[in-house]
Amino acid sequence: MRIAFTGGSGKAGRHVIPYLQEQGHHVLNLDLQPLDLPGVDNLIVDLTDSGQVFNALSSYANFGELEPGTGMPKFDAVVHFAALARILIKPDNETFRTNTLSTYNVMEAAVKLGIPKVIFASSETTYGICFADGEVKPDFIPVDETHPTVPHDSYAMSKICNEACGRSFQARSNIDIYGLRINNVIEPQEYASDFPAYVTNPDLRRRNIFAYIDARDLGQMVQCCLTTDGLGYEVFNVSNDDLSVALSNDEVRKRYYDGVPVVRDMSGNETMYCNRKAKEMLGFAPQHSWRDVLTEV
């Protein structure tokens, strides 16, 4: 597939794009900074500028595409990961403006240009736990896509608005628009550098609902979305299968979620951030775990 990928130079994108290349896709990275990776084309784009987005999504990706003489090739899909990645990078109003306007522009251009699929990054933060003032516990566990999304911070608010835009653009166009509620993205080297602290102090993982997603498995999730057609508008939790701490599921529930309703049987090291919908509807099957690296735990 010919794919426009926004934000490919970021933490997640620089792992997802190589995965997509391995599946045979051609990727054009739309970002403010280029991704220095063989085979990846880059276009510097301000996604908050609608004109630049329309132009980028109807452009050549490289000089080689001029050779056939058959006109401008079309994109088969847009993967939209570009965003200010959390609160406290820029002022709250700028975080909200950047994330909502860029997403609106990408979806509008994709729909009006006839691109048949948009996959966009939403967030675990939509559940209102990650960036809460103080401790907020889930309404129930495991947290699945039916859990209320009532955040109090500008980043998560922007993601909720983006989901509303996705639903509305899909209703208008009938293309496929899939939103990924991505949990804390972990790069392979972070298992050795960061996870020993999580083993020692599980409190560090409370705001992430004791979950994570390996950046490589996130690539697989995007591939699953690219190869699954006809779902219309859907949102999916994206996480690995196991908890990000050395405690068992039962121990986490007793220590952190006393009194929180448990809506189904849970056991072992099962994640509190439910990924069953992605498994059942898309065939998502995470392959990586921090336990493969920290074998002494």
Automatic annotation (TrEMBL):
It comes from Pseudoprimorskyibacter insulae. SUPFAM superfamilies: NAD(P)-binding Rossmann-fold domains. One of its GO terms (molecular function) is uronate dehydrogenase activity. It comes from the Bacteria. Its EC number is 1.1.1.203. The keyword DNA-binding does not apply. PANTHER family: NUCLEOSIDE-DIPHOSPHATE-SUGAR EPIMERASE (PTHR43103), PUTATIVE-RELATED (PTHR43103:SF6). The lineage of its organism: Bacteria, Pseudomonadati, Pseudomonadota, Alphaproteobacteria, Rhodobacterales. It is an enzyme of class 1 (oxidoreductase). Pfam families: Epimerase (PF01370). Keywords: Oxidoreductase. Residues 6-193 form the NAD-dependent epimerase/dehydratase domain. This is Uronate dehydrogenase. InterPro entries: Epimerase_deHydtase, NAD(P)-bd_dom_sf. Gene3D superfamilies: NAD(P)-binding Rossmann-like Domain.
